[in-house]
Amino acid sequence: MRNRRAALGVHFALASALAMGLLTHSPTAEAAPAPLPPVTPTPQSIARSGGDAVVTGRVLVVADGDTDTAARTRLVTELRSHGADRVDVVAPGAVPAAARGLLTVRLGPAGRPDIAGALAGTAVPDTAEGYAVRVEGGRDRRITLAGHDAAGQFYAVQTLRQLFVPADGDDRRPAATPRAPGPDREWRVAGAAVSDHPDMPLRGTIEGFYGAPWTHAERLDQMDFYGDVKANTYIYAPKDDPYHRGKWREPYPADKLAELGELVRRATDNHVRFTFAVSPGESVCYSDPADRTALKAKLQALYDLGTRAFSVPLDDISYTRWNCPGDQSAYGAPGRAAAARAQVDLLNDVQRDFVASHPGTAPLQTVPTEYGDLTDTAYKQTLRAGLDPAVVMMWTGTDVVPPKITVDEADRASALFGRKVFVWDNYPVNDFGNTSGRLLLAPYAQREAGLSRHLSGIVANPMNQPYASKVAVFGVADFTWNDTAYDPAANLRRAMAHLAGGDRSATEALLVFGDLQHLAPTFGATPWQPQAPALAARVERFWSQWDTGDRAAAVTELRAYAEAIRRAPEVVRGGRVEAGFTTDAAPWLDATALWGEAAVRMLDALDARLEGDAARADELLAVSHDLQRRARDVRIVPARNTWGSVQPKVGDGVLDVFLVQADVRLRLWDAAGGGRNLAVKGTASASGVEQNLDRLAARHVNDGQMGTRWASDYTDAAWVQIALAEPARVAAVTLAWEGACAAEYAVQTSVNGTDWTTVSTQRPGNCGTDVVRLTAGEPVTHVRMQGIRRKTTWGYSLYEMGVYGAPAS
């Protein structure tokens, strides 16, 4: 950001300074130094410098024309929010002698003489975006904020923001969160010496998902959030913005262009590099001068608005056909090498003719068509040999959604593309089939410490839900700033505290809610983060206690957590949590309240049965059944995602399975081993498999993996069945449907695999997880889902089929 030399007057008078600065707030005497509050992103170096500095009623800010305007503005705002009635901005050398006793804050470049002297040995790293902070208490009450550059000054203020602590020591909020200032409260600044800089040059997000793009207001909020967490990159690339992709040749309408201009300015104010992406690959004629002119004109319009970073992504397109006959003549028959030659030609032209000729513009970025693997091909070989070395290459990891990214993988990718790669990390994006119905609230993880030395940066592709995405982006910002110090669990708590405005009870409620949204799918069968690990551990302990006879204690312990689940939505909606998050998460919060209440009532039913009151247990079980039904009826409306109006998933595979198991235990109270999922030890078979694809084979319906599925051929009469490992009394069957579900089906049982009895006929209203409760009578050996009528033109598709009961033996 360019600094404007501001006229800085001295708004100061000795009498008012003494009266208002020293007497308006009677500062509490400096207490013994306490541990420093955590700062996020984690600094490279932070230590105690001495006692805390009291925020006096009047504060002096010493700044000049080389002080970053955005940093100065934010500093004044924070001081006024934390106890300063008046903040005077004065020039270096114009600090009046009467200022002694007032808090004085120096802000500016590291080389300014008064700043260099006040740092007292606290080093400002000689690297882009580096900064230093020094806070000195006692009678000096002096804070020094120094930046290697303008961004460094801004980041120094962002660190200072997290060092405010209440002077009375009554801080019930988690550390390293936005403080909740009060007009009548006294504040201190923790005495700290910070020397800090980022590990990765590029840090932030790429709005690159399919589905409803973010609104203008949501994007403006994101720019402020990125400034707070020291993320410096935002790439504008929403797939469903028609002017980004399908209508890339057409200029933006005036109103949209005005919005983009405001967004560029907001990004700049937060030291975020607004990167404008145009994705022409679906229709571009690489050899056509007119198309190249149109592309550059599109970039020029954003350059005129202040944009200084550009991307031409060529992902998710076909590279085995040409869009025009001219490309066949220019580059040969379509294929990998020919496509790469055409793309190199276009990208080099944009880099050399547009980017290099426009002052202040960062190197061009691109996303190759082969973006998610480590296989050397003719395409990559051609890119490696011909692409201008200045062009920045994006890579998504070893898959579209990689379960991990290691240093070795990054080095191999860089070798394939002939340059350090820039990671487009497809987390927490939720625009693909395996994420249907999910918020992704697990912490950013499984990226190896040390990657900063092997990448040019990481940007996260967020969800269609911008405020809920802040949980993962908070982690991305922390990891890319200091990857060797990154702790996912600690970061998750700070992320939730950030959303909760520092309120402790709201933070705890968000952590409980987030645990139920912890599963992170890949495009394959195995999620890269598990579902509900905190709840799963408690459920495991519950069954261990139950099966060893300590049943009352098991119910008491798990009931406390079930109550926390039930209360979490109300607490989250209580006004402390960022309003945008509660809007994003509304359907999931609605469903969580019902699932939590269902769990509480189920545990009450178990407790009643333990006390010998079977009738009361049956009543409570019926209440739990009704709550579960209502929870399954909740729908995500309005639907922002491509998966549409579906059931919000809440702790699926953990919470719902527990309820089924507890249900069966109640029904089979006297049966040893009652409540187990017998399907996992059984053998699955089916009438047929869609296109005979092995990945859709019957064995996937009972493999215990919600990421795999069985799919039938396209007939109403298709079926899938489980041959149990031994005869069993069956009390419940669960069917987790994919989008291709049944409009009507029957659950059948058999004692020999030949003769079948229909025990239940179902006509579900929606595709979700059905729980079919049966009367556990005589033992059976087989359980079948017999299709009657399909809901779609596809076949039937089931993620999992569970059979719950007790072995007859």
TrEMBL record:
Residues 201-484 form the GH84 domain. It holds the Pfam family NAGidase. Residues 1-31 form the signal peptide. The active site is at D316. The keyword rRNA processing does not apply. It comes from the Bacteria. Residues 661-806 form the F5/8 type C domain. InterPro entries: FA58C (IPR000421), Galactose-bd-like_sf (IPR008979), GH (IPR017853), Glycosyl_Hydrolase_84 (IPR051822), Hex-like_dom2 (IPR029018), HEX_bac_N (IPR015882), O-GlcNAcase_cat (IPR011496), TAT_signal (IPR006311). Keywords: Glycosidase, Hydrolase, Signal. Belongs to the glycosyl hydrolase 84 family. This is Beta-N-acetylglucosaminidase domain-containing protein. It comes from Streptomyces zhihengii.
